[in-house]
Structure formats: structure tokens, C-alpha cells
């Protein structure tokens, strides 16, 4: 039996979709295949790397990927995690279900590093909570 495949989309694939990809694998205990991509790829944000390291997950070697490299792939779920990506990718080919999780952009946070890290942690934790509920509701764990 093949594992369910999930693609997380974001505008830059620098924060939210990277976080969601890694959390999907972790929370599901490897029961899903998770990927992430961007409409306009940007480097992975250093504070996203730091936020994930705080919970024992290393994304320092991750690179942003373009959505175009996945256009011919089949996925069970495609989940946009930012509003701009949802508008840029209104319909996804070869997908069982397409969902949207409106999530604040931590890269837009202002203030000191400590203040910005609070936003990254909050987004990470919100995605983890939503991921847990999603995986349970879809009987993926």
C-alpha cells in the first residue's frame, strides 16, 4: 500500500510550507509522504530553521522548490498555507482533495529577533495543531 501524498504550497516556500512538510512527516510518524513548493521560491528563512530546531527538527539543509516541478505528480492532498498561493494555484491537477489553511506569514513579522521568533513559534505551533487534527480526521495516523 502506498503512503498518502501531501503537497504544501506557499508563496515562497521559505517558512510555512517548509514547516508543514516536516511536521506532516513527524506528526504522522512517517505514515505520509510530504512535499512543499512555492509559486515564487525564496531561500528558507533562518528563523524558520531556528523555530524547527527548537523542537528537534532540522530543516537547515532544505531548499525552496518551485511548484512547477510537481505539476505532473499525483497527490492525495494539496494544501495551500498562504492566501496568495491559494489565489495563484486555484486548481491543482491530479489531486484527490485541495484544501486551504490560512496561516499568518511569520516572515512579515517585525521587531527584534525575539519578537519575530515568537511569531515563528506561534505559526509553527498552529500548523502542528492543525496537522494533528487533519491527520486524525483523514485517518492518516
| Structural class assignment | alpha/beta
Number of domains: 1
Largest sheet: 4 strands, parallel
State the shape: globular
**Average pLDDT, all residues:** 92
Q: State the strand order across the main sheet.
A: 2-1-3-4
Number of E strands: 4
What this model shows, in words?
Helix content is 36%, strand content 17%. The two termini are 15 Å apart. The longest helix has 25 residues. The model has no long low-confidence stretch (mean pLDDT 92). It has 141 residues and is α/β, with parallel strands linked by helices. β3, α3 and β4 form a beta-alpha-beta unit. A 4-stranded parallel beta sheet has the order 2-1-3-4. It has one domain: Rossmann fold.
Question: SSE layout and pairings?
Answer:
Layout: E1 5-10, H1 16-27, E2 33-38, H2 46-53, E3 75-80, H3 83-88, E4 95-100, H4 113-137
Parallel strand pairs: 1-2, 1-3, 3-4
Summarize it.
With 141 residues, the chain is of the alpha/beta class. The protein has helices at 16-27, 46-53, 83-88, 113-137; strands at residues 5-10, 33-38, 75-80, 95-100.
Looking at this protein, list some descriptive labels.
Rossmann fold, 4 helices, 17% strand, 4 strands, 141 residues, four-stranded parallel sheet
